[in-house]
Amino acid sequence: MAPETEFLFTTHINLQPAIDGGPTPAGHRLTVYVTGGSFEGPGFRGKVLPGGGDWLSLRADGSGAIDVRIWLETDDGARIYVTYGGRLVVPPELLAQAMDFDNAQALDPALYYFRTQPLFETGHPKYQHLNNLVTIGVGRLGHGGVTYDVHVVK
After folding, report:
1. Which of 15, 20, 112, 138 could form a disulfide with 90 if both were Cys (CB 3.0 to 4.6 A apart)?
2. Domain limits at 142?
3. Average pLDDT rounded to a whole number, residues 130-134
4. Are the CB atoms for 120 and 129 separated by under 8 Å?
């Protein structure tokens, strides 16, 4: 039986240009810091707080291992900590274009694979149900950052 999903929210996360740490034994390290953003879905919306980031590792096979930590703040003041891993797989000849967040929207999302697994942590009573969800995010690059459509796995 295949799992079903239900839309949870869309978020756009604004990003600074990547800090290139170069090759390491664990892969080519890039750090990308969050400058802000927004999210909205049925039942809640708000902003992405600045200060989080992605500690991305470009692996030997060319795929990007995503390692993100961010904070969401709802319009009613709740704070939700979000962590996620995932994969960004871009053909090597398109990688420079993909990492140009201001212009990457010109790159057709069908040309790359960008999936995440967001998990949530909050103590706010109204949003505690998020703590027990497994979700998947489908990402797109561009417009100054990344955009995800996040779905709950039912």
Report:
1. 112
2. 5-153
3. 98
4. no
Which amino acid is located at 106 in the chain? Answer: A
φ, ψ of residue 76 in degrees (nearest 5): -100, 15
pTM of the model: 0.94
Within 10 A of 20 (CB to CB), how many other CB atoms are there?
12
Q: Which helix (H) or strand (E) holds 142?
A: strand 135-142
Length of the chain equals: 154
pLDDT digits (tens, 9 = 90+) for 12-24: 999 999 999 999 9
For residues 81 and 122, is the Cβ–Cβ distance under 8 A? yes
Sole residue written with tokens 């009613």: 76
| pLDDT single digits (tens) 29-55 | 999 999 999 999 998 999 999 999 999
Q: Is 147 within 8 Å of 11 (Cβ atoms)?
A: yes
- What residues contact 68, with CB distance under 8 A and at least 6 apart? 52, 53, 54, 55, 82, 83, 84, 85, 86, 116
Number of domains in the chain: 1
Q: How many CB atoms lie within 10 A of CB 56?
A: 21
The enclosing domain of 95 has a CATH number of 2.40.160.20
